[in-house]
């Protein structure tokens, strides 16, 4: 098998360090030519970082990358392209106001004597690529008029136009219909026969089994499995992805559920180009309950929370607070009805970095301290100090800038700011992102105390261990739909399987 699929690219001792984290920890990776090399792992396992290194988007902190025995240090994506490496990112890098042909050949347009663009040659080449991909897409059509699946095909055509010897496909089927997936697989088989080395990243485990020749599994920046696909099944992949153990966040509070506090009924959010980002989702949360919403990248979890907070005017469906319809159309109105959101990106969306800890905590509830035409600063300080004590936020002074705090304490400030509004339900998007294990445990203890006091919590996460350890009940999303409901005692494999399910039927709340 090695003879049929020679190794065209290797990474040895690959380490990538970002501020505060080691994304890759001594990775040894072989990319076989004329084969599909599938790469799998949980969100944050290091897959995207590894591919960015190969594609020239990032450089290794330590270690070497070599092609056919020659060591390279790609300094840019174009440098990697010059060496025959193409990448199709999950997030499309296209221009909706340009035509299909212009997008495919942007920055590499065929010219007449180096003076002007040869539009006819460009269109003809784009038409040939569309024929190769079995797509009836007009090269002169504006890209913005195409469905998302068709735009994905254009992105693949863009990579093929560069005559890539190595092609990286990051979640290439995430926006494709079943018919388009079959076309893509035929194209992959053709490329494989031509000797192209393909790296295929997907969360859909059945796809990996079907299309792959070799598999590499990453967990926490370390390769935990690398072999040919012979004898590999889904249980083997799951074991390599999650390991035998799990992170422990033991429960100390006794769950005591009350009446239903929040209900979402038939929520839909249309996707630009067709389909739904949130696809007929219904669920409910009771007082004192922690409901975990698990899903992989692109599942639609964050968008669902944004719909709840009135951030998507085109969404449809109904929300209810304590049985009464939520009719308010803006964020302020929904906060007043008892909703509060802890955003995924706390630094960008949750905090004002140049303001003090006190000012950040009270920012959403300034009306509580308003006295005619001024703020009662003494009352504001007392209110902030109360939440600092309740949430055990480690601060030298409430007047210090919030940027001076650690990630875990910044997250507690965001939680305090939300609690200042006296919410009935707390929405939390990736509450432990970017904080260390000790800070995670503190944040989770805080969440459990809040639930024990009667607060309803709906939290979104892509960390499998967290959702199993922290939730009273677990819902799983994939492709914008609910695909499973589990108790905390459910196994890792069952939840992963539901998260990688494609176009499954909705689970009733």
Total helices: the number is: 17
Provide the low-confidence segments as ranges.
503-509
Distance between the terminal alpha carbons, to the nearest Å? 49 Å
What is the count of β-strands?
24
How many domains comprise the coordinates? Answer: 3
Main sheet attributes: strand count, strand direction, barrel closure: 6 strands, mixed
Helix content: 25-40%
Q: Briefly note the CATH topology name of the largest domain.
A: Rossmann fold
Strand order of the largest sheet: 6-9-10-3-11-12
Mean pLDDT over the full residue set = 85
Folded structure, characterized:
With 509 residues, the protein is of the alpha/beta class. It has three domains: 7-242, 3-Layer(aba) Sandwich (Rossmann fold), CATH 3.40.50.300; 253-338 and 423-509, Rossmann fold (3-Layer(aba) Sandwich), CATH 3.40.50; 352-421, no CATH class. Helices cover 32% and strands 27% of the residues. The protein has 17 helices and 24 strands. The strands form six sheets. A six-stranded mixed β-sheet has the order 6-9-10-3-11-12, sandwiched between helices. A hairpin with a 2-residue loop joins strand 19 and strand 20. Helix 14 (407-419) packs parallel to helix 15. The chain is globular. 44% of the residues are buried.
In short, what is this structure?
The protein has three domains: 236 residues, Rossmann fold, CATH 3.40.50; 173 residues, 3-Layer(aba) Sandwich (Rossmann fold), CATH 3.40.50; 70 residues, no CATH class.
Q: Which features characterize this protein?
A:
globular, six-stranded mixed sheet, disordered C terminus, Rossmann fold, 509 residues, alpha/beta
């Amino acid at each position: 098998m090695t003879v049929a699929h020679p190794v065209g690219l290797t990474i040895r001792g690959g380490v990538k360090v970002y501020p505060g984290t080691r994304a890759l920890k001594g990775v040894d990776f072989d990319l076989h030519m004329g084969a599909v090399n599938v790469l799998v792992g949980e969100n944050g396992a290091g897959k995207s970082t590894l591919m960015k290194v190969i594609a020239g988007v990032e450089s290794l902190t330590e270690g070497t990358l070599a092609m056919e025995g020659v060591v390279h240090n790609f300094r840019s994506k174009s440098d990697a392209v010059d060496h025959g490496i193409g990448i199709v990112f999950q997030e499309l890098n296209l221009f909706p106001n340009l035509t299909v042909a212009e997008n495919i050949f942007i920055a590499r347009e065929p010219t007449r004597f180096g003076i002007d663009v040869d539009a006819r040659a460009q269109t003809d080449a784009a038409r040939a690529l569309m024929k190769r991909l079995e797509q009836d897409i007009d090269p002169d059509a504006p890209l913005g008029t195409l469905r998302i699946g068709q735009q994905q095909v254009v992105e693949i055509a863009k990579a093929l136009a560069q005559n890539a010897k190595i092609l990286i496909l990051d979640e290439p089927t995430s926006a494709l219909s079943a018919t388009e997936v079959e076309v893509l697989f035929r194209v992959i088989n053709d490329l494989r026969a031509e000797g192209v080395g393909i790296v295929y990243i997907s969360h859909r485990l059945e796809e990996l089994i079907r299309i792959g020749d070799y598999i590499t599994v990453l967990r926490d920046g370390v390769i935990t499995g690398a072999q040919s696909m012979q004898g590999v099944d889904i249980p083997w992949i799951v074991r390599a992805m999650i390991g035998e153990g799990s992170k422990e966040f033991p429960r100390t509070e006794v769950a005591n559920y009350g009446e239903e506090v929040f209900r979402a009924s038939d929520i839909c959010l249309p996707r630009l180009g067709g389909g739904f980002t949130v696809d007929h989702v219904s669920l409910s949360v009771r007082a004192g309950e922690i409901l975990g919403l698990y899903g992989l990248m692109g599942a639609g979890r964050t968008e669902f929370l944004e719909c709840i907070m009135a951030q998507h005017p085109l969404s449809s469906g109904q929300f209810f607070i304590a049985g009464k319809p939520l009719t308010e159309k803006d964020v302020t109105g929904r906060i007043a009805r008892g909703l509060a959101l802890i955003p995924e990106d706390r630094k960008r969306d949750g905090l004002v970095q140049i303001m003090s800890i006190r000012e950040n905590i009270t920012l959403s509830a300034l009306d509580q301290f308003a006295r005619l035409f001024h703020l009662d600063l003494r009352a504001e300080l007392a209110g902030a100090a109360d939440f600092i004590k309740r949430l055990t936020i480690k601060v030298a002074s409430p007047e210090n800038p919030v940027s001076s705090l650690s990630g875990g304490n910044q997250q507690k400030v965001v939680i305090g700011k939300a609690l200042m509004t006296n919410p009935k339900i707390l929405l939390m998007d990736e509450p432990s992102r970017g904080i260390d294990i000790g800070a995670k445990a503190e944040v989770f203890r805080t969440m459990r105390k809040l639930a024990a006091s009667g607060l309803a919590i709906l939290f979104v996460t892509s960390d499998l261990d967290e959702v199993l350890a922290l939730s009273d009940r677990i819902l799983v999303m994939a492709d914008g739909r609910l695909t499973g409901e589990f108790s905390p005692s459910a196994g890792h494999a069952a939840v992963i399987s539901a998260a990688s399910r494609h176009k499954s039927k909705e689970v009733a709340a």
